[in-house]
Amino acid sequence: MRFQEIHRAAELVREEFDDPYALARTRIATDGLNLFVRLADESLVHAMTRQVAIREVLAENLRFIDWGADGTATRLHLRHFSPAADVIIDPRFGWGSPVMADSKVKVSDIVSLWKAGERISTVAEEYGMSVDVIEDVLRQAA
């Protein structure tokens, strides 16, 4: 994300909700390229242009953030991986690197083992995952 876009999204949330902690709230989402803000009427607007977005089009592409009881972000689900390969970024695991949600295995460890010459089936067996999941992780990480 460009700093200017993050700044505009935070500015929009601060204006709309009078919230000084705009970047730590559930109002900001991303599709991987752009930032969107969910307004009080539940509409989504593009942070930079403030154009209303078509929610149905974005629904499949927005990255989901898990929020704690105190309203702060705890985990980001990376949507470009298949649902079977639930990859997350969670500061409690992998030092903030992408990890597998179930096992907390770092994506970089999976890729490194494969790049070291191991077959995909061997990598899958090593980490207790299906070959399909390993293939998806490798495809997306490339």
How would the blueprint of this fold be written?
Blueprint: H1 3-17, E1 28-30, E2 35-38, E3 44-46, H2 55-58, E4 64-67, E5 73-77, E6 87-89, E7 99-100, H3 107-115, H4 120-127, H5 131-141
Antiparallel strand pairs: 1-2, 2-3, 4-5, 5-6, 6-7
Helix pairs in contact: 3-5, 4-5
Task: Describe what you observe in this structure.
With 142 residues, this protein is an alpha+beta fold. It contains five helices and seven strands. The protein has a four-stranded antiparallel beta sheet, with no helix packed on it. Strands 1-2-3 form a three-stranded antiparallel beta sheet, covered by helices on one side. A hairpin with a 5-residue loop joins strand 4 and strand 5. Helix 3 packs across helix 5 (131-141) and helix 4 (120-127) crosses helix 5 (131-141). The radius of gyration is 18 Å and the shape is elongated.
